[in-house]
TrEMBL record:
This is Phosphate transport system permease protein PstA. CDD domains: TM_PBP2. One of its GO terms (biological process) is phosphate ion transmembrane transport. The lineage of its organism: Archaea, Methanobacteriati, Methanobacteriota, Stenosarchaea group, Methanomicrobia. It is a multi-pass membrane protein. SUPFAM superfamilies: MetI-like (SSF161098). The keyword ATP-binding does not apply.
Length: 280
């Protein structure tokens, strides 16, 4: 009876996976069928326009790149620092357990809630306005729990024998963490960081909440400039009734997917590169 139930569960999981892959393939085909014909260098190098044949994605693409760079600069050092402290320095006390439980809960909070927090704290409270830095701080809050959790798991996976060998040779706590634990955990940490940024690059709700613009005919020159991003531009085109703008939205989706796949491929390459030099 137990074997029958196990086989039934495996079959249901396989069926759910196949259905999900089929739906994903249909969505990708629909986006390719509508948007592939609009992809060109002119589309990538032109600003948005009310005329579909002249519209492009330059400001949104550069805005997304700006946003991801600033988000990474803010979130990765903070997230890695928190993970190192929780795993290597903080004792296994009730306070540490409460902090870790709350971090895990924050990873499941809807992104729109972070948008509301960013609007109240950064846009209005810190008077940053609808700027890139306000958007980057909001997105950093969104992905910080993911970075902390993934970095903790990578650090936790390092065998204790590496730490003990370092201590036996007279290394301090920080020297052990800096020169032995972090290099061994680096593949997992980098993979988690890039996957967290991959989630951030596709988010539209937090940026809409903080007031990111839907039409910009210039590229940002500093972190305090107004901005738009690929998900917002896609949302703007998809909400228009004219059929040509629907095709532009599909082309924007393809560009966003290409950016996501590039980031995921970078995560795989970095992980495989560093894993070759780590033998436990």
């Amino acid at each position: 009876m137990r074997k029958i139930k196990g086989k039934t569960f495996e079959f249901l999981c396989l069926a759910a996976t196949l259905i999900a892959l089929l739906l994903l393939a249909l969505l990708l085909w629909d986006a390719w069928d509508k948007g592939a014909g609009w992809l060109s260098w002119r589309f990538l190098d032109s600003f948005p326009s009310r005329f579909p044949e002249q519209a492009g994605i330059k400001s949104a693409l550069l805005g997304s790149i700006w946003l991801m760079l600033l988000t990474a600069l803010i979130s990765i050092p903070v997230g890695m620092g928190a993970a190192i402290y929780l795993e290597e320095y903080a004792g296994r006390t009730w306070l540490t357990r409460i902090i870790e439980i709350n971090i895990s809960n924050l990873a499941g909070v809807p992104s729109i809630v972070y948008g509301i927090l960013g609007l109240a704290l950064f846009v209005r409270g810190m008077m940053l306005g609808r700027s890139l830095i306000a958007g980057a701080l909001t997105m950093a809050l969104l992905i910080l729990p993911i970075i902390i959790i993934s970095s903790q798991e990578a650090i936790r996976a390092v065998p204790n024998s590496i730490r003990e060998a370092s201590y036996a040779l007279g290394a301090t706590k920080w020297q052990t963490v800096r020169f032995h634990v972090l290099p061994a955990a680096l593949p997992g940490i980098l993979t988690g960081n890039i996957l967290a940024l991959s989630r951030a690059v596709g988010e539209a709700a937090p940026l809409l909440m903080i007031g990111a613009l839907t039409f910009i005919a210039f590229t940002p020159a500093s972190p305090f400039d107004p901005f738009t991003a690929l998900p917002i531009q896609i949302f703007n085109w998809a909400s228009r009734p004219k059929a040509e703008f629907q095709y532009l939205a599909a082309a924007g989706i393809l560009v966003l997917l290409a950016l996501l796949l590039t980031m995921n491929a970078a995560a795989i390459i970095i992980r495989n590169k560093y894993q070759k030099y780590i033998k436990w």
